[in-house]
Amino acid sequence: ALTNNRITPVEEAKTQPSRAKALEDTEKFFAESYLYTPDTPSPIPKDAKYVKVPTEHLDEKQIRLALAHGDSEGGYKVKGLIGLRWSPPYLHDGGVSVGLDKDKELGMAGTLMKGIMPDAQNSLTAMVDKQLREKVIEENRASKALQDVHVDGSGHEYWVDETTGFTEEEQEAFYYRSIMHLNKKQIKWRTSMIKKSVYV
How far apart (Å, rounded) are the C-alpha atoms in residues 8 and 75? Predict the structure, then answer.
């Protein structure tokens, strides 16, 4: 699924920290896990046998990050890239949302809260374009309703734009190649079709 299946510390992701610590209170209830043996009948008898669930192979640091246990501030699992174009808005808080109009339909406040579906390409562009993301965050933070539930679309500051030396064409190619997995011929065809739909 094009993910490393690792938990990224919230300090590194620099996102809204509230959800990263959602499970920290579960630490007081944690204990060794056990399962009934596969031959256990139903209904389960009082003297049923059980075995310990093996956990020795698990990374303790990753567990602490996932559950915000111990001195951990928590973290977020790296999302797979498969299906991203079908699943806007983005980020763990759903704050990175942009409609077809990149000037007016910004953030959750300017899209879903107004009944406007987010556009995958524009929303993913906001993930990697610093200037567009700043506008998205600004719109989200202007909404008291979104601030009450800690949604602003901040964090994950890995830019593919002019601030890091990429052209607009390279940014678009990044979207088509990395997210939609299209080759150069397919990209050229899709771009021409989009232009036709705009001008027809």
Answer: 5
